[in-house]
Amino acid sequence: MRKPVIAGNWKLFKTKNEALALIEELAPLVSGVDNVEIVVAPVFTVLPTLPAALAGTGISLAAQDVFWEEEGAFTGEVSPRMLLDAGASHVIIGHSERRQYFGETEETVNKKVKAALKGALVPIVCIGETLEAREAGDTFKVLERQLKGGLEGLTGTQFAPVIVAYEPVWAIGTGKVASDDQAQEAHAFIRGVIAGLFGKSAADKVRILYGGSVKPENVKGLMSRPDIDGALVGGASLKGASFASIVRYSE
Ligand code: 13P
After folding, report:
1. Distance from residue 250's CA to the centre of ligand 1 (Å)
2. 95 is catalytic
3. What is the pTM assigned to this prediction?
4. Does the chain have fewer CB atoms within 10 Å around its N or its C terminus?
5. Catalytic hit among 95, 104, 129, 187
């Protein structure tokens, strides 16, 4: 009932030509896939280069961040309308690297989510605990705080398009994937929090992606769990063959 989403977060990789080469490799490998939504998220400067290459491939384009104002004296920022103008339909918000290195907070995530929705972009809202929090037994507490903070003030109707990504910080870029059980447990908890905020029907519909060292070898196990509706892939999305085999996990 929930259509899976496999999204590639390219982080700070790929110039224009490198991005075009990757799409050229990827597109034929995923052609004909219609049971999964495919998204790629390059750096801002590459966004406007890709729509022509993506046309007819079924692959959607995401930005990796957004600012909450439409325009104004905000040097270095990019607004939802500008992302739409560049061809993006989705935007990653609150990635742990932004929380860790760039001062992202629940409050800024919340402003960005609201601005993205107002600007007709689909937010992919990232949450996840650090190793320290997990070891202290605070995983659920952190997830609940990040979720409630990031989604504060939204109505159920506003929330409907939102995609959530659970990315345990200790699993990102470490090769240490969460076990299927750990991921499922967190996803079920997240779905429960969403049910509390927006009702059971919204919780049944929301796609919750897992991120953190997803690879062709581990995606199938993760995707077999009932509350895991897709993946947000970093390193393994930088090569056409590995990303395509993640997209084709069900074959
Ligand atoms: P890796 O897949 O490289 O661990 O990165 C995950 C991630 O942060 C995706 O947003």
Report:
1. 21
2. yes
3. 0.98
4. N
5. 95
Distance 196 CA to ligand 1 centre (A): 28
d(CA 9, CA 61): 10
Which among 12, 164, 214 is the best mutation to test ligand 1's pocket, defined by most ligand atoms within 8 Å of the CB? 214
Ligand 1 centre and the CA of 141: distance in Å? Answer: 22
Q: What is the pLDDT along the chain (251 residues), one digit of tens a residue?
A: 899 999 999 999 999 999 999 999 999 999 999 999 999 999 999 999 999 999 999 999 999 999 999 999 999 999 999 999 999 999 999 999 999 999 999 999 999 999 999 999 999 999 999 999 999 999 999 999 999 999 999 999 999 999 999 999 999 999 899 999 999 999 999 999 999 999 999 999 999 999 999 999 999 999 999 999 999 999 999 999 999 999 999 99
Which atom number of ligand 1 is nearest to the Cα of residue 175? 4
Does ligand 1 have an atom closer than 6 angstroms to the CB of 214? yes
